[in-house]
């Protein structure tokens, strides 16, 4: 588990890890080998063309001008112009292809991370900050953009340029070449030092960016703003954000300045190198050494930028790669997260689903060392039947319901649908079979129609209206200025809690699943609206298997079977009247769930008489 989720997590040892990570990064580019080959050819051609220019210059100075050969002079000058044109064209083409490949790799990474997260169990998201997840996808992958889109081209281009330039220098004069190469070992040493420093800082910077993103996501959501304002903590939140931002400023400055002075020293040393070459050639002539033609010296000096600029660029690319390795490591942490809930290699597909649900000696715990949330649950809900699960907070009611659609997997026993273990069913069958209306109603920042069609993308307007009528929400939607085109706002905050619940119920009705899990589905409704929606749910549940989890007992008295959970075990089971007659735990819950009537002090049950 990555460090943001498990305090005991420690990074893997460096021994052998970095080469493996590099191989894994290179594997990302494997699908684009053809395009990268074209880029390599363009880079090689561009390097060769650019190296040809000093040789053309040498011929101009040593042959064409001294011998007055105007035709040769014109041809050589034209060659220099053509060399510049070809170099520019090759550069544009290689940038286009390499950028396209880089963006495709980033797309693949984003999609892979998002797909991985979609397959994670609900438990992962209950212990992970939303901002942290968003930061991995946005900041970390976004931070790799320059590296992924240009690094491969830069490496090939600069390496080819250095090799071609060194060969050209040796061809011109090997003694001057030795003088020019004396600085390269120092460049390599400095680059490695700077790269390691950048990698350490980048890791810290990305963690800080993730922390700041999480703070923004939580505090600037609608719920966060409401909480901050009503608690009078707006100034405190601003100050806290300022501290997070201040830490990021320090890390950004350190990242930008890491190795700058060392690289500046290299630049300063490089500046007098042309003068050193002229001085070396002159001294060699004065000391009786070989006479180096002027054209050779000028051509050699013109080649030096083609050696030092790519060499420095290679070193800078190496530094950038070291920084990006930290980002890749964070991304790979998510790609390597173990998936708790997976589909069998040969899953069972059901075309016709009756809807019988069984819990057979079901146990569940969130981790191996934790206490069991459910222990030895044996229940049967016949097809078309209804089960109500009640009990105190923390008894495991919602967890029991979430085992049916495999939001969690049992740790003991099994849950079956029509006699098939839900773990053996394919995801498509399970998604078609089980609909969930949760107490945590979630609506997208989109229109009412779009939110409803999330359950059935090809639903007609008439189907939307019918589902909304069944959920007792159609008249309200129709009364809005934009009707079903009304944008619900962030998390549906333009609608009341009861309206959001009814929209969620309408969305599930539209999906028309044979099994319904109603987890506090009417918890946000007033008594009158609750009664209306319960009528709609009763009509919807007539031929469907329904599991209702409830605190408010007004929704459960007509269930075929009522189960009272306590500490993860079945304490009582039976029909409403039978349980009341026993005067046990259920009866105690009913008495506790009573409230004074509006017109008198006599306590009355919350559940309406039907």
TrEMBL record:
SMART domains: AAA (SM00382). Residues 357-592 form the ABC transporter domain. Keywords: ATP-binding, Membrane, Nucleotide-binding, Transmembrane, Transmembrane helix. Its main location: membrane. Residues 38-323 form the ABC transmembrane type-1 domain. This is ABC transporter ATP-binding protein. GO terms for molecular function: ATP binding. The keyword Ribosomal protein does not apply. CDD domains: ABC_6TM_exporter_like. Residues 591-610 are annotated as: Disordered. It is a multi-pass membrane protein.
